[in-house]
Amino acid sequence: MAAAPAAAPAVDRTVLRVDGLSVGTRHTGLLHDVSFQICRGERVGLIGESGSGKSLTALAVMGLLPEGLAATGDVRLSARTPATRNLLDLPERDLARLRGDGLSMVFQEPMTALNPTMRVGDQVAEVMLIHRTQPSRGAVRRRVVELLEQVDLPDPAHLARSYPHELSGGQRQRVVLAIALANDPALLICDEPTTALDVTVQATVLDLVVRGVEERDAAMLFITHDLGVVATVCERVLVMYGGRIVEAGPVQDVFGDPRHRYTQGLVAASDLTGAEGRRERAALPTIPGSVPPAGRFPDGCVFRTRCTHADEVCRTQPPWVPRGEHPAGETAYGHACVHPAGGYGDE
Amino acid sequence: MILRLLQRLLVLVLSLAVASVVVFGFMRVLPGDPARVALGVNASAAAVEQLRTQFGLDRPVLVQYLDWVGGLLRLDPGIEFVSKAAIGPQIADRLQVTVWLVVVSMVLALAIALPVGLWMAVRHRHWDGVALSALSQVGVAIPAFLAGIVLISVFAVRLRWVPAGGWVVPAQDPVGFVQRLALPALSLALVQAAVLARYIRSAVLDVLREDFLRTARAKGLRPVQALVRHGLRNAAVPVVTVLGLQLATLLIGAVVIERVFVIPGLGSLLLDSVAKRELLTVQAVVMVLVVAVLVINFVVDLLYLLIDPRLRAGAR
Questions:
Q1: B22 is in which domain, residue-wise?
Q2: By residue range, what is the domain housing residue A232?
Q3: Does this complex have an ipTM over 0.95?
Q4: Which keywords belong to this entry (chain B) (predicted)?
Q5: How far is B309 from chain A (nearest CA, A)?
Q6: Dist. CA A38–CA A15, nearest whole Å
Q7: What is the pLDDT of residues A282-320, one digit of tens each?
Q8: pTM over cut 0.90
Q9: Using alpha carbons only, what angle is made at residue A44 by residues A41 and A46, rounded to the nearest 5 degrees?
Q10: Which residues of A touch B215 (CB under 8 A)?
């Protein structure tokens, strides 16, 4: 796993390299052997049902796991810090220096993500003051207005003086985005940033996220359960189930021609063709069963208890099958299923 | 904001008016003629009658009430029935003592409770946090007068570090003042600190679960920095509420502690006046306590507005 693939480009553009990441309590494993890489300027989606371990992956990378959870494995971030150190071994003091600077995150709930007793401008300014990325307080103040303008907030100079409760959900999420982008991070992690927003606002916020990341040539890990959002925002997608990545690859290939049976079910349930494809009121396609509670996934293939193709072979952990070449390594394109859909063996 | 302020001010004035009626009314509803009660059963009818006319107790109740309120507004609650001593200066004198006691106790309680409460919250999953929490639970259960008696028997009787009671004016003898203030203030503060620390603990625990604290961490603040810069102000609202209630409790609790430590405070004056059946003095002291409690509540309301900008929006 750790060995670089032969087809690696001459210049290493890898920003985030996650290798064999496992997270769990003392008794229960929640994430198992998660490995992936993200290159500069690459936008990668991480999808899966609730409880599949998407947010946990993000929090483990950020070093913000809730108390009682521990991570093992190897997480390296290049760019501003030497990629020679495993983030999981870094002391809190050094990790804090990375957060908000080289590595930043936008959370799901814009309504509660901001401090209600602090002016939003001060909250944006704080992230620059902590990391001393501006030469003076005056520069910070000017940069705050600039950042708020970049996320399309009206009258940014005035808005900087308001409190979060005076803004709408969409406006608040723009502020959170401005905070995350303030120090031009090498990696931006977005955890369902638009799930709590009105559909009409979602598109504009997504657009701002993509624009912000593109302008900075930053890498992005975008967590969502909405396949439509992934299709519009990301180039590549990781499909997660039961704390494991079960399939990965370019969005078109994974959604258009899924291999893993779980991805297949997910794509069918999402019905990306839209409403016009379904005239009559037929039962919506679903994946049978439900996501087991944390730590109660079967051994072997995590999906076998809900999979119609599962047999004895699936009792052992299926190996990762590379599907094609990808600059981000062999974990970037492939699947872990012994009875894959699509190619040979499908009925 | 201004509207909110005026609204709170109006509430304060109305509460004060209602309180004055209740205090005055309650004293008059009590059975027995105030003059007769003050002079005792052996006094002659003529003497009682003379006192009644002298203090205007024969006038209509409404006139008496207005007269009393007018006196209060001029900070002159009248004179005592028997000694004819002015009540105002007595109260002013005693109030100084009680204010010292209450304020020092409160500051002491806060100084103990803040670090202890924070520690209990941050370490709530560790043995030391749990142990401290259990200890504070015991502290809550101990009444202040009992703490006072224990402190006296240890520090005054056994160790002889400080006197067991009494009072001197700070300007006269600063060292003696501190010595005599230490035990009563401490016995009030310890119990209050235990209660306050538990509230601080739960307020901070609530705030630690907030999303914006995670945002603060994601910005690059270390856990303690995040808590201090973003957590404390948000945890302050419930804590200020309790602080206000405690200040009121201390004021009343001081009545008992002043007895235990023989301190000439407002509480002692109240108890003495009750014993002497000096109705006007009792009435005035109770009114002072009521005003203090209402003003504390008013200040707490103002603090809310200062702490939480969401409350400043005009009443809709």
A1: 2-73
A2: 14-102+185-271+285-335
A3: no
A4: Cell membrane, Membrane, Transmembrane, Transmembrane helix, Transport
A5: 6
A6: 6
A7: 667 778 888 888 778 888 888 888 888 888 888 888 888
A8: no
A9: 160
A10: 107, 113-115, 176, 179
